[in-house]
Each structure stands twice: as C-alpha cells, then as structure tokens.
C-alpha cells in the first residue's frame, strides 16, 4: 500500500541531474542544430537531457531502426525539472502480462519474443488497409525523442525517454475514412514464446486489446515508440512497436502491437472486460478520482525504496494539461 509522506519539493528534484545521462559529441551537435531549428525551446529542454544514455545496455537493432536513428529530432522534452528513471528500473520493473504477472517476469521471459520479421495488420475504416511490414510502417516518419512521465494505475511512475513518432503520422499514412471514430490496438498472441498466455490462471482473454477515441489518437502527444534511452525498444517494454499515451494510466500504452483497426464503436478493452468498475475506457490520470481499492492522489516515483519512497503528488492528466480540451463537458468521474 501507499505510504503517505510529503512530496519532495520541486527544487530538490530539479537539482538532481542524472549522472547517467550524457550526449555523444555527434548527437550533441545534431541536438543543438535541431533545437536552433525549432526556435522557441523552453529553458528546461536543455540539450544535455537529450540523446544517449550511459546506463542503457546497447543492443543490436533491426536495419529499419538503425537507418532512422541518425535522423532523430532530439527536441521534444516533456519532463520539466525531473530526472530520467535509470534504464535498469525501466527495463526490470514492468507490466507485460503476456510474460507473467510479476514485475520481473517480462525482463526474465521476453527475450524469447521473435520481433523479426514483424508486421502490423491495418484494417477497418481506412483507405489504405493491409498487412504492413514494420519497415514500411516506419519508413515515412522521422524519429523523435520524447521524454514522458509514465503513471501506472498501481500508483507508481517513471520518466522514460522514448524514440518514435506521433501516432497521428501513422494514422494519416493509412487514411481513416469519415466513419472512423475509434482506434483499436491488439498485441501479439504467441503462446509458444509468451508464457503468460499459457497460464491456466490468467484472467486475460488474449489478445490484449486497447483503444483510443480518434481525436485522442490524433493528439500530438500520442506516440508510437520503437525505442527508448537512445536504443531499440527492449522486448519487455513492448518491442518492436508500442503505444505511449502519457496522460493516461500505463495500461492504455499497449505493447508489441500486431493489429490497428479503425472502428466506429468504442472497442472493449482488456482491463475494462476484467473489472469495468475499476478500469474504464478513458483511464485519464486523475488524482481526484480514486481507484475503488486505493487512492490515486499520489504516486511512487521510481527508483523508490523503503528509506526513500519518493512519493510525489499525482497531477491531472499526469501533468499534460494540454489534453484537457479533448474532455470538455465530460464528467471525468463517469468517464474514468
Ligand atoms: N500487451 C500488453 N501491453 C501492456 C501491458 C500488458 O500487460 N500487456 N501492461 C500495461 C501496463 S499496466 C503498463 S503500466 C505499461 C508498462 O510499460 P513499461 O513496462 O514499458 O513501463 O505497459 C502497458 N502495456
Ligand atoms: Mo500499469
């Protein structure tokens, strides 16, 4: 359960510059060029928080990833005065039930996931449906780095530097028709390599399904990640392609996507099916609407331990208040 301690002051937090974060000379030059090009960059979006990460284990990436990496726009930092979660925590404290329900299970088991070749079925209300090889889905889009807070519904959080591109760009590529109202996402089903799908005790009716309203999906903050910490996405974080919706609880950010459908009805999502009174379709981070079994007013920011629990206030929309307009006139207690 959550231990309530006063949140550390913002000043204290911003003093912490993660030693693990640095830029290579080449990336630093790219970053300053990119920053100069975009012009009005807020003071906290300093170049030394962008780029490569000393603690990130290097990994061999598919060719399509390496081809795009050098053109990355190291510009969009969205974590004012906060420090980036160590790579080790972000990759060893995971939820990915396909690999087991323990926080260490994904890191232990996801190495068996076969990510090459990978394709994504795009269907439903789109002008360009079809089975897309991941290369073809990625090719038209420049990589960006986005440093986002990730707030799990279980009241812990991290700050993760993602690599990828806006979901809106992918949707424009496949061209939703005028009847499309929602986007539905599905994760891979592969019981041979995903031990959680073999478990007889699993609550989940596979595949894992998530969804967004089309206007939410088109919001510039909604992101498709293919990498993190300047490298390709580790399997336990949802390789090779996962959604990141930073203003919503983490369970909306579906991993290892194999199908994207444009539909006219709100899809029934995995956690809604399991416990509709606890997990809604919207799942916007909201400190005022508690989970039926625990408070959502605060969160444990990882790394967190017994002697420094690092409990901080949870912010409305996880601090991404620019999305508020999407929910104008909606009672967020009803649409939780
Ligand atoms: N397919 C799938 N996607 C998933 C999950 C899952 O179990 N299966 N867990 C979700 C939850 S609850 C969270 S908090 C985030 C965790 O992402 P991370 O492990 O990269 O931090 O992934 C989400 N995406
Ligand atoms: Mo979560």
Automatic annotation (TrEMBL):
Q: How is the cofactor bound?
A: Binds 1 Mo-molybdopterin (Mo-MPT) cofactor per subunit.
PTM field: Predicted to be exported by the Tat system. The position of the signal peptide cleavage has not been experimentally proven.
Supply the Pfam families for this chain.
Answer: Oxidored_molyb (PF00174)
Q: Spell out the reaction equation it catalyses.
A: L-methionyl-[protein] + a quinone + H2O = L-methionyl-(R)-S-oxide-[protein] + a quinol; L-methionyl-[protein] + a quinone + H2O = L-methionyl-(S)-S-oxide-[protein] + a quinol
Co-factor(s): Mo-molybdopterin
Indicate yes or no for the key word Transmembrane helix.
Answer: no
Q: Which GO terms describe its biological process?
A: protein repair
Task: Describe the subunit structure.
Answer: Heterodimer of a catalytic subunit (MsrP) and a heme-binding subunit (MsrQ).
**Cited function:** Part of the MsrPQ system that repairs oxidized periplasmic proteins containing methionine sulfoxide residues (Met-O), using respiratory chain electrons. Thus protects these proteins from oxidative-stress damage caused by reactive species of oxygen and chlorine generated by the host defense mechanisms. MsrPQ is essential for the maintenance of envelope integrity under bleach stress, rescuing a wide series of structurally unrelated periplasmic proteins from methionine oxidation.
- What NCBIfam families does UniProt report for this protein, alphabetically? PRK05363.1
**What name appears for this protein in its UniProt entry?**
Protein-methionine-sulfoxide reductase catalytic subunit MsrP
Q: Which organism is it from?
A: Pseudomonas berkeleyensis
Upper lineage is: Bacteria, Pseudomonadati, Pseudomonadota, Gammaproteobacteria, Pseudomonadales
Q: Which gene encodes it?
A: msrP
